[in-house]
Amino acid sequence: MLRTRSVINTIRKLQAITLSSDTTQYVDTTYMEIPLYDVDKPQTLEKRKARLHYQSRKRGMLENDLLLSTFAKKHLDSFTEKQTIMYDRLINSPSNDWDIFYWIIEKKPTPQEFDNEIMDLLKKHAKNENKLALSQPPLY
């Protein structure tokens, strides 16, 4: 019985070692970069808006998922092509979701290249002046 427990404990230790990864051992996971997306890729306006609806909801950071998905649901379909491209650049150019979040809630100053009418709308949306309960829209 004692030998069986020893064997089981050894197997568990080996499994733990096998399942752990050395690839993230020395990586600072507090600052994870967003994968780059080619915002200048030619697309129809409808395809770009459909992609942006999805990307606004699936950020990887719940705070931005909620802010951007509800913002996109409210405004994106009425955007002109120029406004849509500004929004695309805003959510796909920065290398970190926290940067976008801090700009929206005005904890950090917005860089000049993103300080435009879309960011102004986002900041107003984040303030939620009417105190509406927000929830992510469903994916289609």
Polypeptide structure, described:
Keywords: Chaperone, Mitochondrion. Pfam families: Sdh5. Its main location: mitochondrion. The protein contains six helices and no strands. The protein is elongated and about 70 Å long. With 140 residues, the protein is mainly α. Helix 2 (45-57) runs antiparallel to helix 3 and helix 2 (45-57) runs parallel beside helix 4. The model has no long low-confidence stretch (mean pLDDT 82). 54% of the residues lie in helices and 0% in strands. It has helices at residues 2-19, 45-57, 62-75, 81-92, 97-104, 117-127. The longest helix has 18 residues, at 2-19.
Could you give a quick summary of the protein structure above?
This protein has about 140 residues and is mostly helical. The chain is built from six helices and no strands.
What are the secondary-structure elements, in order, as H or E?
Answer: HHHHHH
What general form does the structure show?
Answer: elongated
Radius of gyration: 21 Å
Helix content class: 40-55%
The total of beta strands comes to 0
Q: Per DSSP, what share of the residues sits in E-state strands of 2 or more residues?
A: under 5%
Structural class: mainly alpha
Spans with pLDDT under 50 lasting ≥5 residues?
A: none
| Largest sheet geometry | none
Number of helices: 6
Distance between the termini: 57 Å
Round the mean pLDDT to the nearest integer and report it. 82
